[in-house]
Predict the structure.
Amino acid sequence: MEFSELIKTANVDNVVLKQPLRPPVRGTLCVTSHHLLLSSRDGDTMELLLLLRNIDAIEKRFVSSGTITIKCKDLRILQLDIPGMEECLNIASSIETLSSLESVTEMYPFFYRPLNLHLQEWGLHTPERDFDQIASHTDRWRLSCVNKDFSVCPTYPTAVIVPRSIEDETLKKAAKFRQGGRFPVLSYYHRNNGMVIMRSSQPLVGAHRRRCKEDELLLQAVLGGSDLGYIVDTRSAQLAKQATLIGGGSESKSNYINWKRLHRNLERGKVLQESLIKLVEACNDQSNNMDRWLSKLENSKWLSHVNSALITAGLVAECVEREGRSVLVHGSEGTDTTLLVTSLARLILDPECRTISGFQALIDREWIQAGHPFQLRSAHSAFSHARLRHEAPVFLLFLDCCWQLSRQFPLSLQFNEALLTRLSQEVYASNFGTFLCNSDKERCAFRVKEKTNSLWAWINRPCELGRYTNPLYECNSLAIWPSVNPQSLQLWQGLFFRWSHSTQHLDEAWEEISLIVSEHKAKGNTDSTLPGGSNSQAPAGISSICEPCC
């Protein structure tokens, strides 16, 4: 198929672009295979360069001419006034068709070739590298290639970390007892006490109370010399019990005698997607009515989902750090709320994950390689009129939780809000192949790492990295325990209001902070004047900005 066959009208003159916080612009609108472009007639400057994949919905209105309202997955809303009804209809039809192409190899990352970036710049974060770090501290674990051809588990990577005493044949039998073949694998090794966080999918117990000796042996090997571990199920006890009726369920106390089960219900799927839709609707409400705003915000329940995710992640981290117990996390499929909890728990416990490179590695391992179905979950955002199928903003919820942590601990995370908002956009529509597909198996089939560029390679360039670096960062080797009191959680305005509220003053403040910090570093006074240490003080003017609001 040729892209040109899908473009009914390629160019239209005298189109007026209207968007918040900017004056209207008149120019020439162009539709290409992957972009919507508008060039201004005054100065011939590019006013709009929008990936068609970023378009979530369009609305058409006709009077004397045509108006197209474009609602984007990154929550932007644009309006195009197009002279001529036929041209407007043709443009709308072309946009709808090109923005909804589902073939992976037809997406823009397979065509994007930026200067000074090579296709081979992948592989910074691999299971082998993670294992090498763990092996330097303990010999209890090994790297298994039992899934080298994706035959054991189609959503796991080719290599996983498992107890050294467990053979591959045992893993294969345990995989048959777990939904989708997702047998328990290592997520995080806590160096302070040797405890671990494991993740998996639910056991296939069913109504007949099936058991699997190999699965029981695997989890017993996880405990080592410990007499107790915790299983954190991200479903309510009632939902877990109902799952037995359709072949699922949870680990029985009689067969897993050294494991204690804890249930913490986290919403997923349609409920989470509808929550995002309601929140965005509230944020775009123009009524300026306080009661209406507060009611809509409460009804969206988005902050309740943030609260639940942080509480559950904090529980897992507390079991590991304070109680000295290993933890297995799973829900049903193990590809959504399970990954949300394990990744947040790691961020709480592991200072390495709070660096920019460590955060990239965390996302690679706990989301991308771990089999989160990005293409299914991010098919639509908050504006689409299409019937909900597999969409769910689980990764967006993770980023929101990260932002809450960064606000409560402004000195402990090396990355800033700009990186989080960038990722919230990249996951829906991107020039890069990092978030393409639903699993490593699919990425290998489409040769994503051979034919597309890595987002991390682009961000890690020196000319880009500074934009995503927190100038106040000071390494904190301690765990960061988030406050989950209702007063401590805030709406992420930098994401949900970024297209409707100007951030000029905030940007200028951060530039000033960066300048102050750079001057102090240049004077060699970082030990005594930069914030972060127990005996340090922030430079004048910084401390009030750094303090969490609650």
